[in-house]
Design goal:
Chain lengths: ~425, ~375, ~300
Amino acid sequence: MKGRVLIAVAFGLLALNCPSRAGKLQFYNTRMDQSDSVGQQSPMKKQLSLFLNFLVLSAAIALIGCGARAPKEQVIKIGAIVELTGDMPAVGASSRNAAELAVATLNRAGGITIAGKQYRVELVTEDNGAKPDQSAAVANKLITQDEVIAIVGPNASLGAIPAAEIAEANRTLLITPWSTNPKTTMNTASGAPKQYVFRACFTDPFEGRVLAGFITGQLGAKRAAVLYDVASEAPKSQAELFRQTFEKLGGSVVAFETYTTGDRDFSAQLTKIQSAKPDVIFLPAYYNDVGLIAQQARRQGITQTLIGSDAWSSPELVKMSQGSVEGSYFVNHYATDIATPTAREFIAAYQQKYGKTPDDVAALTYDAMGLLFHALKAAAAPERQAVRDAMAAIAGYPGVTGDIRFVPGSGDPVKSAVIMQVKSGQFAWVTNAVP
Amino acid sequence: MIAALKQQWQRALDARWLVPCLLVSGLVLAFAIAHFGLLNNYVQLVLIYVGINIILATSLNLVNGYMGEFSLAHAGFMAVGAYSSALLSMKVLPVAAHPALFHLAVLAGGLVTALLGLLVALPSFKVRGDYLAIVTLAFLMIVKSALENIDAIGGPRGISGIPRLTTLPWVFCWTVALLWLIRNFVYSCYGRGVLAIREDEIASDLMSVNTRRVKVLAFMLSAFCAGIAGALFAHLLQFISPRVFDVVKTTEILIMVYLGGIASIGGSILGAALYTLLLELLRPSTVAGLLSWLPAVVFDPLNDYFIRHLGVLRMIIMPLALVLVMLFWPRGILGLREFRGFIPRRDRRAHGATRLKGTDAHDAADSH
Amino acid sequence: MTQSGVYWLQQILNALQLGSIYALIALGYSMVYGILTMINFAHGDVFMVGAFICFLAATLLKLPFVLTLLITMTASAGLGVLIERLAYKPLRNAPHVSAIITALGVGLFLENLTLAFYPYPQHVPPLLHNVTWQLGGVALSSLQLIVISLSLTLMLVLDYVVRRTPVGVAMRAISWDKTSVPLMGVPVNLIISITFAIGAGLAGAAGTMYSLAYPVIDPYMGIMVGWKAFIAAVVGGIGTIRGAVIGAFILGGVEIMVVALLPSTYRDLVVFSLLLTLIVIRPHGILGSPRVQKV
């Protein structure tokens, strides 16, 4: 290892100190250059050389430092990939909070016992900036450099899909709390499900079916309008699946409007929807968009019921929409008002540690960690393959978001959804939807 | 004594066999690392990213640095290259059976992007400077919007399941090939035309430089290289979507170019390497590992207040560092300067680079 | 599409509101470009910081609307001057593009700094009571009226300042010829700082009004709005104040009308294609004059 680093350092220093005599193209002395002297090592150039040499050396030290860290005994490392920067920092912050809470709770209770030995769990959190290339790099880093036993995350499918590919290729368990894109757990080339990738949430097709069934059945609606973010794949697939299912059940989609991520003004689309006179309006958007859309809709005089997806299930929703979502229905992972003791415990602990009510990302991440701990306890040895087999064999785990089990051959869990309504500013349970 | 050593050193650097020797050893190293796993997967991945970013930075440098335009369309070129090569290798070419066809897909991706580069070059005849920035930004937005709207190629969901065919040695080969291409272009008569356009377009037009042809060639070459980088990127990540290729990506490439130095191939290499490596180095677990030898009394508070938050802090530190670099080296670290190995022999005198005493009597009299 | 006149009237109101906000930001771009020939890419993020300052003032200080607006404008102006002194002044003699990259860096820095404090989107409490009137089918909200009228007032004030006051004359003089103006006893650095302060102050006002109209704010909201306002400034003729305003209203109008007429998926495509054509046909923008380049 040290030898490789020395070679790298030698190359680096060689490359750096070559251009100390680099000339500059002479025929630019008209406008572009004013201050550089020719050839001599000005103080600034010397500083530059020193600075760059320092950079190479520190990179070398980092390589030494990273690779040669001796594994501490009795510690199991779990990797978490979250979107701390990039365009969805709220998702990453919630996810990280829930993961840290889960690990802290477990360690406080004495850690985890695998095959008779006691271990402490260490969480290695990495940021993927909501970008696929960073996701792939970070997944690689966690697997090969940090040697984690399993990975939780990423949340957005944009990052989850590349990370899932890396995990599958390296035979490491990856469970994503929030990614609803069916492709995450599927091998696109063969169409077969991936062996090592699981998720803690239900998928888009299931959600679309549930909602369409609820609207035609319980609400008796025949005409629906849809407004969704065309540049975001979860809302778009939910919108299309909803349309398919709704039309199959005999309804008609009278308006199918779109906007782009980051839009703030929906007046044109809302006016179109208003003139189409629907019975309900389906809005599969993230809660901060919903706040804007609902307020603008009510301001324009649209009184129809709004229907939402699981992205609505954040406690911030009511605050963001200032009463304009009163009476709306949406799909959630768990009902906070008829919460099970497990869920209530989690909500209380989260509130105490972080001062806010957990949203769906937090709840799902907590469940993903819980599933992982359950699999670790049942594993035959603290190894990646054993943990993966234990996860696939989970026949019923009572999580915050309901009962979760995996069927053999699929990384998608079998779990039910709940339909909630916003009543007097609170979320109220309406009905359950079992698969 | 030192002077004699220095002279020997300079003579060695001037030797004909230096650059080919470095290239061959680099290639051997790349193959060895990939084949024998000398470095772990993560470090290999980072090196591949460095290679792809070098191609992107150098191709943007061609238009922004050497030609003095301000083009923001680079992420769009990358997108077109990525999508076209991914579609080719997934739907058209039997890549699974013949992996060598991967390079055909990459090349085709680059050629399709070159056609788009031709399209972008056309407005540049009439429009310069900040207005060209708008035009190229508009191109980028149009490409992104088109990709989001065409459902046949995935729409906002993108394409997943692209075969993983990019490896370290192939990236090294492509990087070297494209750098060689750009370097030859810059030091050819077309390259002289590019530099002339940057200095004074009207004067160069009067001096019989065919500005239209030069601009078209420069844009096409730049787009070709960016398309190839995009193709390599697609076959590495196995998943692409329009969200990846937005203004933020262009901004990143711009930063790499201006950080390393405008109008300098060595500068682009430096900028791309610095940016990519720093981004990876400044991760919490890496820095924690680096500093773990510190005594606990120093390390623990450092960890709690600084290192744990590096995920967000590094995105504050990086732009700040960029601004600082710009304040001290406005043209970038290696702006307008070049590594000696890249400059062809016949141009080295013009660069004032030859400092060997006694090798050539004429040089001593040169007062460039 | 057979829509009634009411529908179009509604859309026109929407366009006016959007256009006014773009106009306030575009003015900042235009003024800075007119004086320094530099595109201040951090301007969109100054707008975003302005919105966050408004949020802080509204939630912590709980002052009435006018005071909040004044505080936000002052704070944003201060931020603008700070950025100018620290990041742009040293680069006045450097190549053009270095200043642009510095601006991009400053913008990124502001975004991520705000992100570090507020990763979750925030809701700005309503500062004004909103009343919606129904006038023959058109829903007119007092909020829209206030946004439009306030923006127009600010633009008129700016127009007056630039055309009638000594400071404005100095600004215009510097945009004509930067080298000989100091010889006439004009404190160039001070005037440049004042220009940045005014531009940033207007962006702060835009941020306040934006959070009135669209009360959910997040650290990345400045990016697209900033780029669109920049495009508006260029379309109208960058460097001219009236051009910035006209360009902004045109862009707002086109955006709204495209969504009204065509399926909304094509909005970005159509807007940017139109923009492209306009720039190629008339590169200096609508009210801009071609820059005479001496050979």
